[in-house]
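Minutes, project huddle
Topic: does the predicted pose make sense with zinc ion bound?
PN asked that the exact inputs be recorded in the minutes so nobody has to dig through chat later. Recorded below.
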Amino acid sequence: MDGGVTMAVSRSEIMSRIRGRDTEPELALRKALRAAGLRGYRTNWGRPSIDVAFTRRRLAVFVDGCFWHGCPEHCKTPKTNRAYWVPKIARNAARDRESAAAWESRGWVVLRLWEHVPTDEMAEMVINALETRGYNSKVTKPERKER
Ligand SMILES: [Zn+2]
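Predicted holo structure (tokens), as shared on screen:
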């Protein structure tokens, strides 16, 4: 069944949900990162694809939807059609682990963030991870006089 069924939501919106690209929590995080003065990251970059990639610092940030990626706190598999959903979400989680392992084996640091984490906390975790890779966030902040 296709063609004749029109949808209330746009196709791109559906695709972004299905593929987990440019989701709302991810866009909010990117906005917070820009506000913190971070530039130059790439989005949906590399293979396997990284949501937000800091190529110079080799930091891979993934923002995982609670439902699709099986968040232990929020992922409730639908009661109907469990034979479909349970293995599907398990496969997604397995793919997430493989993707993280692939990047770690290339010397990257991988940060996986659940979408339920508040945006400012996400941004802080990203900045902390970048600092372990030599990034100095102080240079973008107003200078403080300290002795
Ligand atoms: Zn969650």
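Observations noted during the meeting:
- The first helix runs from residue 11 to 19.
- The chain has four helices and four strands.
No decisions taken; revisit at the next huddle.
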